Amino acid sequence: MKTYLIQRGTIENQESKKGIDSIVEFDYMGASEYEWGALPDSLKRLRSRINEYTYLDVPLFGKCISVFCNNEQKTEVMEYLKELANGKMNTKLGSYFDQYVKPSKHDLEWQAKHPLKINFWWDIENDLMFWVKNPEFELKFKTIIATKPS
Question: Could you say which of 5, 21, 25, 138 would form a disulfide bridge with 17 (CB–CB 3.0 to 4.6 Å)?
Fold first, then answer.
């Protein structure tokens, strides 16, 4: 499983917003591939198959990553995350996933002054999402992801 488009985000309560935007603040990616309805389209595809989705906790380089993926993707998730963490996946724009799970010495020095806020990622081609393990967020996410907008 490969991807080119990963949307970055930060888990954050935003009570003034609705749906997934109420729990994740998405980074502005600055490329047309992320605009023109790319996120809503991915969410629509995901929700159309919601009964085929599952949650996994994946240990990776001493960190725990929660993954929301289609059952068909379960066997590939570990390798997918490892490739992303090791910089072996060519994405349109940086995901910064590697800087979270496997930071270099330079990354650690930078993060000491500028903490990395990104802790949520959405593969908008494969319709899967993953985040830094966070039980409180996961409870909210489970409710929101299963609720189709009216």
Answer: 21
- pLDDT tens for 96-145 read 888 788 767 877 677 777 767 889 999 999 999 999 999 999 989 888 88
Cα separation of 59 and 64, whole Å? Answer: 5
Q: Considering its fold, how many domains does the chain have in total? A: 1
Is 1 a member of any domain?
no
| 47 within a domain of the structure (yes/no) | yes
- Domain with 50 in it: 6-145
63, β-bridge pairs? 60
For 56-110, give the DSSP string.
EEEEETTEEEEEEEEGGGHHHHHHHHHHHHTT-S--SS---HHHHHS--HHHHHH
Structure-block tokens of residue 29: 């990616």
pTM above 0.90, yes or no: no
Q: State phi, psi for 78 to the nearest 5 degrees.
A: -60, -50
